[in-house]
Design brief:
single chain; 386 residues; alpha/beta; Rossmann fold; Dehydroquinate synthase-like, alpha domain; 2 domains; two-stranded antiparallel sheet; globular; binds 5,6-dihydroxy-NADP; binds zinc ion; methylglyoxal reductase (NADPH) (acetol producing) activity; metal ion binding
Length: 386
């Protein structure tokens, strides 16, 4: 096992009726900017619940943070923060609103020329403006980690950022929010969380038995709850298990002491940047071909995963490992998620080359647990996924 430090200061407040606790979690004298997306919170009662919990606080609102939060929109929110002298941010939304808020937390205190540099130059944020979140969509784990991803349409860029200053001070996770999530977003949430676990697990054996077993148990639980939550999101117990899996999949715990991959995400971000495909679906496109390409290096862990998550008992390591990739692809498909780029666009010829160039331009030239996924290899993986 590798050496590690585990630091996670987020106060995770989980369960029914917990939104009311906001009033005790935000300092009374703060001026709060409440940030949200395209309006789902106005249809499901979360808007009223949050405002009621903020009673007594001075509150300004910023609406319209879109899926795959857009840099130009966030610049407008940044202007509001400065004009209104905001000192606390409250994100009410899914990964996009929370990530946008993390960018703003960093940008609000950034002293450089252009806040885009935080993303382009991968500047780690050590101190940001304090913020909390009310999670409305289990998927990304952003509610309990310090990473964010921001998109810029005009340049077809989608870049990640982070740093120890970007953990939410608190996150409220009330599984009752799951009730109103459309099927497509529920499937996305399961697929994203499942892939997060794989990115931190599907490398090579390192005798990290507990990390392996926590990862496997998150995946087993997701396999169990996926069809149930998609069929009936109003089942509280199922929703609660789904929500906790998504948080645990990417709150930093399972990556401690082990090698991690993340090449699937980095390559997949290029698809969203170019075509606007939902994040989770881009993962389902890239992962099977990435694992086929890296088969020899990943086969031991693939076989272990086949045995422990998919109950495969027969066959050689290679046979089990192959089946593991098939089962994963079928799992995405079972949730109505298509796993080829051509399922999403007819205009894919030449994309692999452009994506490879973009990875190179952004210094993402040595991806994967061995650092051997160069832009040329990424190009091959994308072509295999056409
Ligand atoms: O905008 P509104 O109207 O709120 O609608 C949203 C949005 O259209 C809707 N929604 C959210 N909660 C709902 C709801 N609809 C009904 N009922 C509810 N309770 O769902 C749509 C998608 O929301 P979004 O926030 O975009 O989804 P998600 O949580 O999947 O976030 C995706 C973003 O997170 C990034 C992705 O790249 C993408 O930009 N990621 C962030 C990570 C992180 N910070 O750790 C890691 C991930 O790998 C990922 O990259
Ligand atoms: Zn993801």
């Amino acid at each position: 096992m590798k050496n590690f430090e585990l630091y996670n200061p987020t106060n995770l407040v989980f369960g029914k009726g917990q939104i009311a606790k906001i009033k005790t979690l935000i300092p009374a004298d703060s001026k709060v900017l409440m940030l949200y997306g395209g309006g789902s919170i106005k249809k499901n009662g979360l808007y009223e619940q949050t405002l009621a919990a903020l009673e007594g606080h001075e509150v300004v609102e910023f609406a319209g943070i879109e899926a795959n939060p857009e840099y130009q929109t966030l610049l407008k929110a940044l202007a509001v923060i400065k004009e209104e002298k905001i000192d606390f941010l409250l994100a009410v939304g899914g990964g996009s609103v929370i990530d946008g808020t993390k960018f703003l937390s960093s940008a609000a205190l950034y002293e450089g020329d252009s806040p885009w540099d935080i993303l382009a130059n991968r500047i780690r944020t050590v101190k940001g403006m304090p913020f909390g979140t009310v999670l409305t969509l289990p998927a990304t784990g952003s509610e309990m980690n310090s990473g964010a991803v921001v998109s810029r349409k005009e340049t077809h860029e989608k870049l990640a950022m982070g740093g120890p200053g970007l953990f939410p001070q608190f996150s409220i996770c009330d599984p009752e929010v799951v009730r109103t999530i459309p099927q497509r977003q529920l499937a996305n949430g399961v697929a994203d969380a499942f892939t997060h676990v794989l990115e931190q697990y599907m490398t090579y054996p390192t005798n990290a038995h507990l990390q392996d077993r926590i990862s496997e148990s998150i995946m087993q639980t997701l396999v169990e709850v996926a069809p149930k939550v998609i069929a009936d999101p109003s089942n509280y117990d199922v929703a609660a298990n789904f929500m906790w899996c998504c948080t645990m999949a990417l709150n930093g715990l399972i990556q401690k002491g082990v090698p991690t991959d993340w090449s699937v995400h980095m390559i997949a971000h290029e698809i969203t940047a170019h075509y606007g495909v939902d994040h989770a679906r881009t993962l389902a496109i890239i992962l099977p071909s990435a694992y086929h390409h890296q088969f020899d290096k990943k086969k031991e862990k693939l076989a272990q995963y086949a045995e422990r998550v998919w109950n495969v008992t027969e066959g050689t390591v290679e046979e089990k490992a192959k089946l593991a990739i098939e089962k994963t692809e079928q799992f995405y498909q079972s949730m109505n998620i298509k796993t080829r780029l051509r399922d999403y666009t007819e205009d894919y010829e030449g994309f692999a080359g452009k994506a490879a160039q973009s990875l190179k331009d952004h210094g993402l030239a040595k991806l994967g647990e061995h650092g051997d996924i160069t832009p040329e290899v990424a190009k091959k993986i994308i072509e295999m996924a056409y």
